[in-house]
Every structure is written in structure tokens, then in C-alpha cells.
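queue> pop job 88
queue> type: inverse folding (structure -> sequence)
queue> payload:
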């Protein structure tokens, strides 16, 4: 029978654990029965730690070592770990052997944990990419390849932010500590038609059926968009179409986006019908 005298409390500081000077990230990994793995970004080492269900420390091992200190780590769905360093690089580590599969330079720097706006790994659903925003630009780093693409137009004053890769939704907090949800229309970086974007916006954001959304004379291409979905779908659509001189109106229960065509003399040869078309105000 155990008594209080038989148990010796053990405490280790996050700045002195296993002789490391700094722990920058703790990432949950695989769960096997009653055991679970965690990965620590400890100075320049990626340390694998296994705990039992009751909290006992079962094993500690260095999975991989780097010349630069680690800042952040993500456990990918195939058991590999993707890590970011304080030198603006990202690497993928084989979860079984510790071999580094790639190292790429990224156009952003993840801050130290004391200054970091990026949410902890276990508070996000990162399926294919890491989402990082700074200076009004959104960056998406592919976990499998390490390649990064970007979209301009994000809020430059964001504080804490989190990302759901399943729904392409971001949760941010403004400088006034107000929570805000944003929808990011993502892709491969290739251009897509503005007409397709408007149709998707009204179907998924305003509840229209696809057959109830029409676009006319719109052939512009865009690379992506960062949207504040606290606004209504119609307000978002108005802000998007204004620079393109596109009208939005309703016709027989359908929402219509239409640009008037002009000739060399700027004569309008396409117009909103005088009867039956209700212009959106």
C-alpha cells in the first residue's frame, strides 16, 4: 500500500528539461493502446517522448537533430513530423527513422513561443498545409512537399490565429481581442474564374441553389481570396464586384452577376432589363 511518504513529486522546468535551454513546441503524436507519443522542439533537437495513460514517462529519444533551433512541429497523418526552424526553413522528418526527407526555405518566420500568434498544433486541424499570416499576407506551406504559396489581402493586424484545413476556415483575434472567423478560398495557386468564385459564394454562403446563380459577360481570373465571413454573402459579393464594374441583381428568383459590354465608343450594348430585374442596393 502506497502512502504519501512513498511518492516523491518530480518537477522539471520547461527551460531546463533534459538539459535543454528552451522548449518551443509540444506536439501530440500517435496513440497506441494506453500509450501516447509527444514531440518536443527542444533547442535543435526533435525529441520523441512516450507517456502511459496515467502520465508515467516511458521513453525519451532524440528523433532528429538540426543545426538551427526548432520553433514548431506538426504530426502528419502518415506518422512523419514537419518542423520549422528559427532560420526560416521547414523540414520533414521520417517518424520511424528520423531521416530528413526535405528542407525548404519559407517566406515567413515562426516566432518564439512567447511572441507567437500561431496557435498550438493540437488546437488546429492541419490536413495538408500549415496556414501562417503576417503583414497582410496569408501563406500556405504544403506538409508533403514543403512548398509555400501565398495570397495577399489578409488582415495585417491579426493577433492569435488558428486554421481548420478541413473547411478552409481561419479563426483569428483582432487587436481589440474580438474573435473573427474567415473563410479562405484556396487552391493550387493556379488562376480560377471570378464567375466560379461568385457562384460558389452565393451557393455556399447565401443558400442559393446552383441553378439560381447566373453570371454574364464575366471572364476575369483570380488566384484566390481572403474573406471576412462575419459579413453577409451579399456584402462580400458587393465588395468583390465593385472594382470590376459588375452589377448584382435578382431575376425570377435567381441572383445574377452581369457586366455590361461596351464597344470602342463606350456604347453600352448590354443592359439590365427594365422589367423583371431587381437591382441589388
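queue> result:
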Amino acid at each position: 500500500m502506497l502512502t504519501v511518504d512513498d511518492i516523491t513529486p518530480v518537477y522539471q522546468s520547461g527551460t531546463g528539461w533534459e538539459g535543454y535551454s528552451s522548449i518551443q513546441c509540444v506536439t501530440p503524436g500517435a496513440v497506441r493502446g494506453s500509450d501516447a507519443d509527444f514531440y518536443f522542439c527542444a533547442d535543435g533537437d526533435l525529441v520523441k517522448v512516450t507517456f502511459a495513460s496515467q502520465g508515467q514517462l516511458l521513453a525519451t529519444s532524440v528523433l532528429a537533430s538540426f543545426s538551427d533551433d526548432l520553433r514548431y512541429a506538426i504530426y502528419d497523418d502518415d506518422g512523419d513530423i514537419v518542423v520549422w526552424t528559427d532560420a526560416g526553413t521547414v523540414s520533414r522528418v521520417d517518424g520511424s527513422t528520423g531521416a530528413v526527407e526535405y528542407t525548404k526555405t519559407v517566406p515567413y518566420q515562426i516566432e518564439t513561443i512567447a511572441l507567437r500568434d500561431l496557435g498550438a498544433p493540437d488546437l488546429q486541424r492541419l490536413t495538408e498545409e500549415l496556414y501562417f499570416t503576417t503583414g497582410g499576407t496569408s501563406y500556405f506551406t504544403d506538409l508533403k512537399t514543403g512548398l509555400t504559396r501565398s495570397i495577399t489581402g489578409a488582415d495585417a493586424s491579426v493577433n492569435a490565429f488558428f486554421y481548420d484545413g478541413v473547411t478552409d476556415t481561419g479563426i483569428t483575434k483582432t487587436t481589440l481581442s474580438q474573435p473573427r472567423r474567415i473563410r479562405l478560398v484556396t487552391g493550387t495557386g493556379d488562376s480560377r474564374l471570378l464567375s466560379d468564385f461568385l457562384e460558389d459564394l452565393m451557393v455556399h454562403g447565401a443558400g442559393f441553389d446552383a441553378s439560381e446563380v447566373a453570371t454574364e459577360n464575366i471572364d476575369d481570373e483570380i488566384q484566390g481570396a481572403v474573406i471576412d465571413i462575419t459579413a453577409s454573402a451579399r456584402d462580400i459579393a458587393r465588395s468583390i464586384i465593385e472594382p470590376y464594374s459588375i452589377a448584382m441583381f435578382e431575376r425570377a428568383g435567381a441572383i445574377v452577376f452581369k457586366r455590361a459590354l461596351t464597344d470602342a465608343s463606350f456604347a453600352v450594348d448590354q443592359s439590365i432589363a427594365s422589367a423583371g430585374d431587381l437591382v441589388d442596393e
